[in-house]
């Protein structure tokens, strides 16, 4: 057993695992907080919706598409000055969170937009006919109706963040991905690679299970 | 109560203005059940949505109780909408809320009511539509008829004076349709509720409406009391509805009569005349024979009526027809 995992320092692994969880938690929190309103705005300003604004929608959509088309590794590097400005460092957990948020927010926003589109137009019409304001329609009808879809989108986003977080190891982001690259890849310590990948796999499984349970809990159809 | 004044509405589709409504000009009285019937694309959904401005007219005014609602500001319009209930073909209930929460929803949006007040009102509404035991279910657990009852309870939550029904029974089976229409008729009587319903089914109008407007290509083809419009249809669209409802093919019918001797007329009885032995008595007096080719005895809302297609032979047919006309029957020549 010890021969098999000769290179493994379990306290390093533990620290890296904790870092990954911190990166995931921090970036997921901000991604949800920023992506949800952005998704709502995308939906509302799109064609034939409550606040249809072709110019605003076109602009938002363009920015979202640009951010989504930049490979995450490149985004990590391009963002370094901005990251230093925001987080004070481009290294470690704090340095990883800004690029993770910028990379995942447009992704999540699109998923929110799609989930809102799935809500029957009749629901909006009925709520409008009751004399609701646009804010009431969004907060009290659209978001509750789209909740299962938004939760499913949040789950996909969380899992995407796990793999993005692993990538941030490239620029010294810390966490399991960092360990996998520095020890598993660069020092040919295959055992470290296997353990970190296994841990990431378990993390993804747990996230998906929680997400699925939440979706089922909030589905009333 | 509701007045359409020179309404025009067109939609912009691919750079062209496509007219949906063209010169709509009529009134709906307080406490009336008013039917608007038309084929799909005739503009009836647009017309009903003008009443709560879910659609805005391109030109013209919609006046409700003396107020031109097209001139209201956003807050005024929201207040006006709270006084108008609406039910829909596909119910449009919030799937994330229970039955009770759905009914409470318009009250919660209005924000003028305390929790206890809302609870009491919801309980009363659910009792009225017979869904008390389903209060904590979600819409997905209900049948179509039950969902529409929730829709009706929800629409009545803010005690509106007007209820708009957008093809409210089109997704329901015949028995459920009957029950929902009965509920609407009862509510009309109990609450002096003005009901505007749009439909493509003549039967719905015939069962509960007082007056009807037949809509064709964005214009009112015919308007009047239901019995008058449906028993003596003038416009081709109205005739088509009547024939559809009786599953009669006009061309086929004329062919069938080719071999029938005599003079063929359509007799329409309404009210008390429907149940009197007029035809036999008159035929005896005038010495004519008759054979009944087609007919139906039914009710339009609360008025019984009969409509018979009859071939008269022998004797003095003119005298017979005159006597029938004198007793209040209306006579239409099918073939001389």
Write a compact overview of the structure shown.
With 221 residues, chain A is mainly alpha-helical. Chain A has 9 helices and no strands.
Verbal overview:
The complex is a heterodimer of chains A (221) and B (336). By secondary structure, chain A is mainly alpha-helical. Chain A has one domain (10-218): MetI-like (MetI-like fold, Orthogonal Bundle), CATH 1.10.3720.10. In chain A, 80% of the residues lie in helices and 0% in strands. Chain A is built from nine helices and no strands. The mean pLDDT of chain A is 91. The model of chain B has no long low-confidence stretch (mean pLDDT 90). Chain B is α/β, with parallel strands linked by helices and 336 residues long. In chain B, strand 1 and strand 2 form a beta hairpin. In chain B, strands 6-7-8-3-9-10 form a six-stranded mixed β-sheet, sandwiched between helices. Chain B has a four-stranded antiparallel β-sheet with strand order 2-1-4-5. In chain B, strands 12-13-11-14 form a four-stranded antiparallel β-sheet. Chain B has two domains: 2-244, 3-Layer(aba) Sandwich (Rossmann fold); 257-335, ACT domain (Alpha-Beta Plaits), CATH 3.30.70.260. Chain B has helices at residues 44-50, 74-82, 99-110, 115-128, 144-156, 174-191, 202-208, 226-231, 236-245, 250-256, 278-286, 317-326; strands at 2-13, 16-28, 33-38, 59-64, 67-68, 84-88, 162-166, 194-199, 211-216, 219-225, 263-270, 289-300, 303-313, 330-335. Chains A and B meet through helix 6 and helix 7 of A and helix 2, strand 6 and helix 3 of B. Chain B: InterPro entries: AAA+_ATPase, ABC_transporter-like_ATP-bd, ABC_transporter-like_CS, ACT-like_dom_sf, MetN_ABC, MetN_ABC_transporter-like, NIL_domain, P-loop_NTPase. Chain B: It comes from Andreprevotia lacus DSM 23236.
